[in-house]
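Problem 12. The chain below contains 118 residues. Write out its predicted structure in token notation.
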Amino acid sequence: QVQLVESGGGLVQAGGSLRLSCAASGRISRIKAMGWYRQAPGNQRELVAAITSGGSTNYLDSVKGRFTISRDNAKITVYLQMNSLKHEDTAVYYCNLRAGWPAAYDYWGQGTQVTVSS
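Solution.
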């Protein structure tokens, strides 16, 4: 059983910063990538940032230059540093872990609310 535990969400004023953390535990093998998705009311879930096992990163265009994804391999933890937050960043943020071999599976955290007041 794989578990993802997120922390770090909350309420912040526009222009402020938050740091999300996601720690994975359980029987995990062949990690392919870890990342963060978000979903705002009425919207589809979208990829915010991801980091592969090789260290390559990918970002949603609207967060480039403001958000930074990083990881601690020893702790199987992924972080999302969010700076210069905007009201439109308000959403529930979900941690994602893609792992497994030969087939890769997606595991999800429970979600953490990020609210940016304008």
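Discussion. The chain is about 0% helix and 60% strand. Students who got a different answer should revisit the alignment rule from Section 12.3.
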